[in-house]
Structures are given as structure tokens and as C-alpha cells.
Amino acid sequence: MTKDNIFVVGDVHGCYHTFMELLNNHWNRNNELLIQLGDLIDRGNFSPEVVDFSRALQNDPETEAVFLAGNHEYLAINHYKGDMNEAWFYNGGVETLRQFSKSSIGFEEAAQWFSELPLFWENEHVFVSHAGIGENGNLDNPYDLNGILWNRGTLKNIGKLQIIGHTPQRDGKPKFFTESNAYCIDTGAYLNLALTGIRISSDGTVLDMVQVPTKDIDLEPLSYAV
Known about the structure:
This protein is α/β, with parallel strands linked by helices. The protein has a single domain, classed as Metallo-dependent phosphatases (Purple Acid Phosphatase, chain A, domain 2), CATH 3.60.21.10. It contains five helices and ten strands, in the order E-H-E-H-E-H-H-H-E-E-E-E-E-E-E. It has helices at residues 16-26, 47-58, 71-80, 86-101, 107-115, and strands at residues 5-9, 32-36, 65-67, 120-122, 126-129, 161-164, 175-177, 182-184, 194-201, 206-213. It is globular. The N and C termini lie far apart (38 Å).
């Protein structure tokens, strides 16, 4: 199935209702490939719902959707493998585990799906990953702190448009880095700012940038009965 355009969505972080509004109002599933660049989980109220929906969308024969791994998915994978990673607990992991304990989708099932997610997507003109190709990063090692899941340094200009997330833009606006020809579209959904999607053609031409302000329900305190 070949789509005319590509619609890339930034870090969702458990903000299910915000994610749904962005897709329902701005993604044309009939002629756009959807790419979500990682960090589906943690910090928001609905990590299991985001995962469940994303898995269903990935498996829907009527659409074309690619979900990439983010560093939060790998923190969860490490926990599933027995690494009691306090860094994950401090960054939303405790609440995420609680959410999965009350969900129809189990944490183990989610972690196994995370482990199957690719680290990047590319064509001749576009490269999408969670944190981007840095000057000294390893493209294939998900545990390299300078690699494409963790990098927060300067990006290389690789001769393609890079689209990344990972580092939230505190003004809630996507940022273009001219020297590296890269967009960061993590606009702080979990910071009660916005979730961003960027629409591009297959040759890397930016066609549109859209945003949905974070929905209150995705972050406000909820009863455990919800």
C-alpha cells in the first residue's frame, strides 16, 4: 500500500484523548502513512488505552501505521526483563504499571509489543526516529545514550529531513534546526501544552503542521475507579 503523504506524530505520553483528537481531526488515513515516533506511554492517565489503540491501528488492513520505539518504551522493556530501573519509576513508570494492572491489556503483553517496534523509519528523503542521529550516536544500539532513543545533543545533517521528538519544546511549538535540517515535534503533551503532527510529502516537503492542546482529562487526577 503506497500513501501520498506522511503524517508524523510526536510524543503522546499516555494522553489518549489528545491523541485521538489529533488523529480524528487531522490525519487522512486514506492517503497518509501515519508514523508515531515513540514515547506512547508514561506521565499521562491512559497509557494502556494508547497502546491498545496503537496496536489495533498497526494491525488494521485499511490503514498504514508505523509505531517507533521511544526511550520510555525501552525503560518499560528493561523493567519487564527484570531490571528494576528507578529512572523509569521516577518518570512515570509506577503510575503506568498501576494503569496496566487495571487494564484489559497486560503490561507483559505491552512490553513484548514494545520490543518488536522499529527504532527508525526512512525513505530516500526522510528519516524519523525518537531522538535523532547525533554526531557520535550508534544507529543500531537502543541503549547508546548518544543514540537515536536518547540523544539530546546536536543532530547530524544526513542529507535528509530528520523528524524527532524526545526533547520537549517548553514553548509548546515545534522547532526547526536549520543546520541539521531537522524538526523536533515534541511539544510537551504531558506538560499540558500540545501534541503536534507534521504532514510531509514523500520527498520531504513540509506541507502542514497541526497541534491539539492537551485535553484536561489526560492529565488531571483521576479516581482509581476510572
